[in-house]
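Late entry, magnesium ion complex.
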Amino acid sequence: MKYIFMNKNTEVLLAEYDSGLGVFSKIYDIYNINYAPYILKNFYNDTSLRTNLSKWFQGRGIPSWRDKLDLLLHRLNQTTPSELLDKAFGLSLSDQYWLKPYDTDIKYDDINFFDHDFDYTEFMEASLSKNSKMVTREEALMTPNNTTDGMLKKAWIIEDGVRYLLKGGYKNEVLQPFNEVLASMICERLGFEHVTYTLDTYQDMVVSKCPCFITKDTEFITASQIRNDMERHDSTKDYEDYIKLLESHGIKDARIKMENMYILDFLMLNEDRHLNNFGIIRDVNTLEWLDVAPIFDNGQSLNIQDYNDEEVIISGQGRLFYEVKCFDEIIAVVKDIKRIDLSRLDDLALWFDDLLHKYQYITNMSDRRIHKLCILLNSRINKLKKLGRE
Ligand SMILES: Nc1ncnc2c1ncn2[C@@H]1O[C@H](COP(=O)(O)OP(=O)(O)OP(=O)(O)O)[C@@H](O)[C@H]1O
Ligand SMILES: [Mg+2]
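Prediction complete; structure with ligand written out below:
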């Protein structure tokens, strides 16, 4: 089918999109290529624009590694996630790209999911519920849930007009949502800009819940997209170049904000800071780079993958830009740890202990594990304090 590929109200290009395959099979015309997704920057005048547009569009959908993907697709009566990509005009809540059927007068203002409510109940059930019915109504697929990235089961919902992302744990792991909330608490106490996660319960599960950090005027551009356009050296030099690039685009306090993210990762032993878990916010009307994206997705932390009932494991590796490194090396990028008032975290482990106990009746997390998590957290805070004194 023939579509105009749109960025909010701007016509980017005219293309043929093959809905079955989830690919753009032909580009007929280019209108405003600067408004295309940032990752396509190097392909603006290239014959591979079409292939890379398809690749980007597929990458914007539900990934093949989504937890319980088979079950979700079965419940939605779909064979692959790419079948969902052009449902609901391909709209998302993380950017403003969409597909406008050619020769129609559909306007962004009439369809976007920031202004217009969507019927999320069935998708949420299909995604998060242990026993969900098959989704039969086509309207149930008219949601921004067709275009969410990430490994965890998740669903966009609306409460009091606010769009929230609900996220479950990986398989039967229950710690993820608590880690998200802990990260929010650390950020709040230390004054780091962040997405605020709270806890919610869905059936017999604890899930995390965070508001959308994008507005109708902005898009999230991942560090992965930005890096794609940069020269490659080693991770430390590339990290420096990344900060310089952000600063050259006028983003204020880019270095401090990146450092804050690595301080949080150090405290929480976050192993999942890959290049799609941070980035920048761009204005979709002016294409101005506005800010570093607030810190989000901190669930894969506190040795969640390597829990051992017998011992407290303090090892684990994080990521500096794209390279897996030990946390002691990563924290070295923070120029002045003393600027952070770590005494604000003094009773944090106690607070976390209370929180984990409060939900124990649902999570069945053992006292032993809770105790160990709190010891681990305290040890990280003390270690950072020590580094701050050196
Ligand atoms: N609050 C939000 N507002 C807007 N977009 C968001 C928000 N939270 C997440 N996203 C988008 O959804 C994607 C997936 O979310 P998130 O990273 O939290 O999921 P995940 O399943 O934990 O990911 P991963 O595969 O990295 O573990 C993000 O990369 C981002 O593009
Ligand atoms: Mg993520």
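The longest strand covers residues 10-18. Will revisit in the morning.
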